[in-house]
Structure formats: C-alpha cells, structure tokens
Amino acid sequence: MIRKPIVAFMGHVDTGKTSIQDFIRQSTMTEREAGMITQHIGCSSVPIDTIKRICGDMLKSLKMGLTIPGFLMIDSPGHAAFTNLRKRGGNLADIAVVVIDIKEGFKPQTIEVIEILKAYKTPFVVAANKTDLIPGWKPGKGSILSIIKEQSEQTQQLVDKKIYELVGKLHEHGFQSERFDRVEDYTKQVAIVPTSAKTGEGIPALLMVLSGLCERFLESCLECDICSPAKGTVLEVKEEKGLGKIIDVIIYDGCLKTNDTIVIGGIGEPIVTRVKAMFEPAPLSEIRDKKSKFKSVREVSAAIGVRICAPEIDNVIAGMPIRMASKETIDKVKQEIQKDVEEVLVETDKDGIIIKADTLGSLEALMNMLKDKSIKVRKAMVGDILKKDISDAESSHEKNPFESVILGFNAADASGIRNDKVKVITHDVIYKLIEDYEKWIEEEKKRQEAKELENLARPCKIKLLRGYVFRQNNPAVVGVEVMNCTLKTGINLMKKDGHRLTSAKSMQLDKENVSSAEKGKQLAVSLPNVTVGRQIHEDDILYSVIPEKDFRRLKELKRLLKPEEIDLLKEIAEIMRKENPVWGV
Ligand SMILES: Nc1nc2c(ncn2[C@@H]2O[C@H](COP(=O)(O)OP(=O)(O)OP(=O)(O)O)[C@@H](O)[C@H]2O)c(=O)[nH]1
Ligand SMILES: [Mg+2]
Questions:
Q1: Inter-residue contact 333 to 271 (CB < 8 Å)
Q2: pLDDT digits 0-9 by tens, 93-112
Q3: φ, ψ of residue 477 in degrees (nearest 5)
Q4: pLDDT, tens digit, 9 for 90 and up, residues 542-572
Q5: Stretch 456-472: mean pLDDT
Q6: Of 96, 104, 90, whose CA–CA distance to 166 is shortest?
Q7: Which residues have CB less than 5 Å away from ligand 2 (the ion)?
Q8: What is the distance between the alpha carbons of residues 104 and 577, in angstroms, rounded to a whole number?
Q9: Ligand 1, atom 21: nearest CA belongs to which residue?
Q10: Which residues are near ligand 1 (CB < 6 Å)?
C-alpha cells in the first residue's frame, strides 16, 4: 500500500501558493485569509480522482499508471516572519513546490525555502506562477506548452528570458534546472513549470510532473503498512470552542484510532495521553479553514491532516513528534520519541555555540544549516534566551571567544543581562541569522588581529639629526627625523649591524609629549643606556628591533600592513639575516 505523498507549497509572500491550491481544490481560501496572507501551516487532501480530472489526457505522457492515492497538500506562509512554519513545512514534505512570481523572480524567502529544502534534502519542482501577468500574455486552452507557442514572438521571448533567469538563480544555489519539458534527467534537474493560478494554465502540467516524480522516485518512501502505529508531527496547538485544547496533526505514517494511547515529545519528558476524539476535514478542504466541514472519525491513516482532542496537552509544543503506542510498546516509544527530541535538544560539555529557537522544527532546521557550514553546537534548546544560557555561553569565552555566542532564531533575549563576553545574535530569518553570525566572526577576527597588531613590534627607521644633541647620556636626548613608517615609544632600536643599542624611552614633538610620530616628523627622543659620541653619533640611522616571533606574525598579517611597512620589514630582515641566514623564515 502506498500512502499519499506530502506536497508542501513554499515560497515568498504573495507568489500564489494558496491560490494554486485553491485552483486545485476549487476553493476560495485565499480570499478568506486574515490580511490576505497565510499565517499558519494548512493542509488539505487531494484525492487521485481530482488529479486525474485536472490533468486529463496529459497523464498519458507519463507513460505509467498512477498508484498514489492522491496528495496531502501542505500550505505554508511566505511572509518573512514565519520562517519556523516554512521550516516545519519543509521538514514534513516528501516533495515541495517552490512557487515564484515569474515577473519578480527570486526574493529573500525564495532563497530561504531553497536553503531549507537543500538542508532537508527534499526534492522540489518550481511553479513559475502568474504567467498571465507577463506583458502581452493571451490566455488560451490546452497544455501550457501549446499556450506558450500561441503567444507573440515577443511574449514567448519574455517567458524564456524569465525562466532562464530562474535557471541562473537556481544554479547559484547549487541546483541544475530546466523548463519541465526540456528536463532530461529528473534526478539531476529541477523542473520549472510556468503556471497561472488565475487562469489555471500550467496547473495540469504541475500536477503531472509532481505525480510522475512521486510515482517514480518516492515509491519506496511512500510505502507504508497502513495499520502500523501512527507517526506524525504536531502542526498547531490551539483552543477550539466547545472542544478545549486541540492539536492539529499530520500523520505521515501508519494509522490512528480513538482511544489509542499517544506519546508526544516534550521538553524534559514525553507527554503520554489518549485520543478522545478525532476530526477529519473533508477532502479538498483546508484543516485551518473555519468553514471546513470536519467529520468526526474513529480511525485515520497516513498521510492525513487530523484534529485531535485529548486531555493534558497544554504543554505540547508545535513541531513535536507524535506516535501511537500500545501497552507493550509504550516504554520503547517513549524512549525513541525522546531520543528524536534529544537529537535536536543537544546539551553537552563539548565545544560549540548555543542555539535557541521557538519550536522543535525551527531548531532542527537551524541545526541542519549550521552542520552544513561545519559550525559546532554544544547546546540547542527550544525557548527564549535565558540567564542560564548567558552564563553557559560565558564559560566558553576563555577557551574560544568565537564560541561564547548564542544564536536565537525566532527566540528573544529574555535574559535581561548584558555580558561583554557573550555575543547574542537573534533574527527571524534563518539565513540572515547565520549571515549575521558569520559577519560577526569576520569582524571579530579583524578586531582581534588589529588588537594583536598593536602589541607587535613594528618596523621603523630614524636618523639622528646633526646639531641636535640635547644631552649626551643618562639618558641621551637627541633630535631625530622619522625616515620611514611610525616611531613609537618603547620600541627597541638597533644600528645597521643588527645590534640592539637602546630604546625610544620618551618623545617630544613641538614640546608636547607624544607616544608616536609618523614619517617626516622631527622630534626629540630620549635614548637610555647609550652615550652620544660613543655608541651613537649624529647622522646615524637606527632601525626598530623586531623580535623573530613578531616578524613571523607580521608576515601572516601582511594584508593589514602598509606597503612601506612591508618594504622596511624586508630591509630589517636582510640586516638580521647577515648573522642568521634563516632568521624569520
Ligand atoms: N494575476 C494573477 N494573480 C495571482 C496568481 N496567483 C495568485 N495571484 C494573486 O496574488 C495574491 C497573493 O496570492 P496568494 O495565493 O495569497 O499568495 P501566497 O503565496 O499564498 O501568499 P502568502 O501565503 O501570504 O505567502 C492574491 O491577490 C492572488 O489573487 C496568478 O497566477 N495570476
Ligand atoms: Mg498563502
């Protein structure tokens, strides 16, 4: 027995995700959404007959019979704020439809969903929607390919141009793609189907490509023993008039009956309860649509969206796994479910950063994305950022300041503490959060290198001016000119033979005490442990002494040095290498 594949519609806000599903369902969900945007995950089941009716003869081109019993469509919000729900949609899906407004092309949440799908390794098809808005577009009948052929030369070129822009963008994100009829290998190329939710053009082709992909490539993962214990994910927890707390759940495997014992993942320990009642939305109706007709059912089987009424579900978090268990299996199921949860909720003493997110699904997505970037995580938890997280992060500071970091994804900083040793970064768009973290690391590295550079001996060349000996010794005070780079107090000085003589103890420029003087400046410098006329003389040239280890580090930080500093370092190295040919190598 093959279950219904779960098809998630994902993409940037207002691209037409809900509208395409409305066309398939012949419903008007889009018009009834608050603020005209989707703010929840929805799901509706599409029977195979509906798919066959919409596709008509087109299915013949698949050259195979369909064994899937239909689709379970999942709608997800495109608005930037709902990253967590897109994550959950992406996680649940067997396959996704990334909906893009063909005129607008790639947008921030298009990139976000593609990255999510990449992280979950979920295959996807692109619906290049709103083709009817392409200038000059004339709606037609028949297949989308024949409709495109009927357009003017100019409009056809525009369609092609827009599709190739998408091909280019997908390539930037690591995907090969083509218009669906030009795809040679569906395992290697993403199919792009031009569609219009307004006229319905291209939607038969979209359903045909989806059905073909599910049939050919997902068969093994869709196979399920229809009466195995149910496995699912909580979509939403809410209060429903007359029913009290209910959970909307997607069952992706097995079957569930009323009175069955269910185990739901919890923070700390699993929640064990019993199915009191179940309600199934009618085929082609949305689980979240208030107008949907729900039918009380005693049994459901995957894949299906179902509303469950059960006691003691107040603490359930959206995104948690849910499983049916029997008396015999309950301990095992509890253990397995908690292991699933703990795989995401990491708490170790090992290296890495701390991450927090609002739901399990978003935490998992963040973990996956960080893993892809080889960023280590030592603690991952659901919830806002608390005092304890700050002190945990602080403890990594000494060992690795780049890891005393907390990333909050859809999680607010509720610690009320500011700690200079802990960097807290929060964002509600996952890839922006990671970008911000990477940017911070980059800047922090630069800051640290700049600080380190401050503490390294730097090259400098000075000349003792004739006629400006203010004091012979104890210490000698002489007038000098900075010939190259910057002279700083404290720097040790040597002659051209490489022997260290003295240091620039204090300096006066125009009668003011200064700690540094740039090239070209003439100033008075006090030089201890030397006597003018003995170790040093007027017109002498002195160089700064660079310890070998400082020299090596300066070589590593070369990109932060000025060209004149690099040249002078070479000159100093030559002096040092007269005595030790491998100095600083
Ligand atoms: N002309 C035209 N308008 C469309 C098409 N698809 C959707 N629209 C319109 O675009 C607007 C947004 O459509 P929705 O279906 O709500 O978009 P969505 O992607 O579900 O939006 P969110 O769920 O909020 O991210 C609505 O006004 C639709 O009527 C299309 O193919 N052609
Ligand atoms: Mg929508």
A1: no
A2: 999 999 999 999 999 999 99
A3: -125, 120
A4: 999 999 999 999 999 999 999 999 999 999 9
A5: 95
A6: 104
A7: 17-18, 38
A8: 63
A9: 14
A10: 13-19, 30, 37-38, 77-79, 99, 129-130, 132-133, 196-198
